[in-house]
Design a protein that fits this description.
Number of domains: 3
Mean pLDDT: 92
Number of strands: 11
CATH architecture of the largest domain: 3-Layer(aba) Sandwich
CATH superfamily of the largest domain: P-loop containing nucleotide triphosphate hydrolases
CATH topology of the largest domain: Rossmann fold
Strand content: 5-15%
CATH class of the largest domain: Alpha Beta
Bound molecules: adenosine-5'-triphosphate, magnesium ion
Distance between the termini: 47 Å
């Protein structure tokens, strides 16, 4: 039974309420099985397929809730070990506190280096924590204490570190080696490392010269099968007294190659423009897409603003192609009126670095399907 708590049941976000979460049963089972067997997992897939959602979904399963303390940090916006340590400290303290765990009382006794970050909430009078990088004097020491604390918990701890590849770009040297050393010493704490930069993640976990070599089981994630997503979408429309033609779900799914975020975003918009008691039909797809593009337009404009002329040219050329096998070939350069292969390669590398362009089995493409459409519409 689906409750009607939400104005729109197609949720866009990392944490999706259980009843509105589509499938991933097998992936959930696999992930939990690894955890149960004390293995660390590297969860690797292209962006927007549902890695973060899957982690939160696993954390919400009874077996995990009952037997583990779970913590989740997202390194996306971090650029130093200090920030990582601050995030982890905040997350552990706040999450144990919100679960009213007795174990939290030992936090400041064991993580002594964070005593300065402790304060009293003026509203509730309760102890609270709000760590910034200023509170982290020696990140190595604090991290060491945090791991010791986790290991001393009365239940095993499960720590998910999302966008893990980010540690490769940290200002400090040897963060990978340091983390690896601490993690290796943990016997009851398990880790999920999640990331979308396939090459970086693969290099971290599968290359013999790297600290994390063979320290986690690598798990991929594919698209949710069309038939499963279709049944899910139809069920959600029905639960809210609306209908949707299966053809619409199929068209949207095909158009965005089943990539969860884009499909879910389109369904969210299609749901919102379908009247109560009404039916969503294929002729509504173009206006749903237009609405989404106009919502995103200012963010696309600011992305463009940050790019060099060369990068913009490459981006437009790839958007026109959809998929570009090569960007530096004579034919491609001629077709798109580009110049100098060497500077094209530099521009392409920068776009890949910013994850604006991704390399797939079919060639280079713009990561954000909506952005690609918007770019085409501006040509
Ligand atoms: N199982 C699901 N059921 C319904 N919607 C989902 C599901 N998984 C993901 N989504 C939708 O797709 C979006 C993207 O998912 P999520 O953020 O988990 O992907 P991700 O792989 O972590 O992406 P990124 O690499 O960009 O961080 C979510 O915000 C949500 O709207
Ligand atoms: Mg994510």
């Amino acid at each position: 039974m689906i409750s009607r708590r939400y104005t729109n049941p197609f949720i866009l976000g990392k944490k999706i309420p259980e009843e509105l979460f589509c499938d991933r049963n097998e992936e959930t089972r696999t992930l939990i099985k690894q955890i149960r067997n004390g293995r660390n997992v590297a969860l690797v897939s292209p962006r927007r397929l549902g890695k973060s959602g899957l982690i939160h979904h696993c954390f919400a399963q009874e077996e995990i809730v009952d037997n583990y303390y779970t913590f989740y940090i997202d390194l996306y916006a971090t650029s130093s070990l200090k920030e990582l340590v601050a995030l982890l400290g905040n997350e552990i303290y706040r999450s144990l506190k919100s679960r009213q765990s007795k174990f939290v009382e030992k936090f400041f006794a064991m993580v002594q280096s964070l005593r300065l970050g402790f304060s009293i909430d003026s509203m509730t009078g309760n102890p609270t924590i709000d760590l910034g990088i200023g509170e982290i004097q020696v990140p190595e020491t604090t991290l060491f204490e945090i791991f010791q604390y986790l290991e001393a918990a009365d239940k095993p701890c499960l720590v998910a570190i999302d966008e893990f590849q980010q540690i490769g770009a940290y200002s400090e040297k040897n963060v990978e080696a340091l983390l690896r050393t601490y993690i290796q010493r943990c016997s009851t704490t398990s880790f999920i490392f999640s990331g979308s930069k396939r090459h970086v993640m693969s290099n971290m976990f599968n290359s013999p010269s790297k600290p994390f070599y063979q320290s986690a089981i690598t798990m991929g994630l594919s698209t949710i099968p069309l038939s499963t997503y279709e049944a899910f979408a139809i069920r959600l429309f029905k639960a809210y007294d609306k209908e949707i033609d299966s053809e619409v779900v199929q068209m949207v799914y095909d158009c965005f190659e089943g990539y969860t975020w884009f499909v879910q975003m389109m369904m969210n918009e299609l749901f919102s423009i379908t009247d109560k008691g009404g039916r969503c039909t294929a002729d509504m797809i173009p206006s749903a897409e237009r609405n989404i593009l106009s919502l995103q337009e200012s963010s696309y404009e600011s992305t463009m603003h940050m790019l060099s002329v060369k990068q913009k040219q490459v981006l437009h050329a790839i958007a026109t192609e959809g998929y570009a096998r090569t960007v530096t070939s004579g034919a491609f350069i001629k077709k798109h009126h580009l110049v100098s292969p060497s500077s094209l390669q530099t521009a392409l590398t920068a776009l890949i670095d910013k994850t604006i362009v991704v390399l797939t089995d079919k060639g280079y493409r713009i990561e954000d399907f909506f952005f690609a459409r918007w770019l085409r519409s501006t040509l």
